[in-house]
Amino acid sequence: VQYYCMDATAMTFADQSIQAVVDKGTADAICASWDQAQRLLGEIERVLQRDGCYLLISCNPPRMVQGFFGTRLRRWQMSHTAFDRVDEVARRFDLQCHGYLFRKAKTTPLV
Question: Cα 93 from chain centroid?
């Protein structure tokens, strides 16, 4: 595993050079802005190999994540799981953590 520090909306990696992206909080932090969300997802889509995976750990429910992806979701297979509230703070404030696994399609649809 290697870690890099760079702007997630303008990565320096070559196209289709990454097998997997793990995101724990980045999308939650910047996706309050539609433009930022689209730049982030565009970069993830650009750097992932054709069958690459994007693992997103988020406090956002599926309807919000699907809103971030918009029409880009057609190019991904998505699976979702909600994690149990594991501590008192999460239970008290009804916070839930969600895990999303997006697999990039091997081919891009014509639509």
Answer: 24
CA–chain centroid gap for 50, Å, is 16
Residue 93 is encoded by which pair of tokens? 């404030």
pTM: 0.81
CA–CA dist 37, 25 (Å, integer):
13
Q: What is the pLDDT of residues 67-94, one digit of tens each?
A: 887 777 778 888 999 887 667 766 777 6
**Average pLDDT value for residue range 17-35:** 87
Q: How far apart are CA 65 and CA 10, in angstroms?
A: 21
Residues 22, 30, 75, 14: is their CA dihedral positive or negative? negative
What one-character DSSP code corresponds to residue 62? H
> Tokens 């993830």 identify what position?
44
